[in-house]
Amino acid sequence: VLEFPEGLKPGRHALFVTLDTDEVDWVPNAGAVGFDLAGVRAGLPNEKGLLVVASDPAFRVNLAAAQGLTEVGMAEAGRAFGGATERMLFAWRFEQPGYSARFALERHEPQIAATVVTHLLPSERLLAVGATVLLDIKRTGVREIKVALPKGTGPLVDFKGPMIKEKRAPAADADPETWTIVFQRRIRGEYRLDLSFDRKFDADAWSAA
Hints:
Elements: E1 33-38, E2 49-54, E3 59-67, E4 70-71, H1 74-80, E5 88-94, E6 100-107, E7 111-123, E8 126-149, E9 158-160, E10 164-168, E11 177-200
Antiparallel strand pairs: 1-6, 2-5, 3-6, 4-5, 7-8, 8-11, 9-11, 10-11
């Protein structure tokens, strides 16, 4: 129940309602999540209006079922929102408040481009290896990435980057040695990961140039 201290003057008024879910990662990496949407009511016997569905680029939204809705074009929906149609996918008109709809929501596959810069520093019986991995993650965010290192790198690898929650070491005798970097939340956009490790050699391991 909404109460207005000074009442409402005659004329047209707009009320915007936002419904959020606070469940972390409620849409999985694979498969679709179905959800039902019942009509928001103004509490009056005579109600009509529009239902407009927009989406973050990370998701694909499909209409599974609808009742009491008539599809309209984006132009009509845009006029209702001051001409803005950014990220709008669907729009329907309803003449009675008892409409309903069911949607299926799924994630797009992420598009990831990587640039890797590796630098070496040889010294007596030691080869210091460092690398910078620059990621450009588009469409949807990711919760983890994998980094492949040469066999024999060993467990002493130092990873540095924002939002790192966990570093999972590769399986024994893996070739290549693939590490899994898990983030505190999904990351999207540009991301930088720095890593370093040392390769030690016995005197007999060095070869003459």
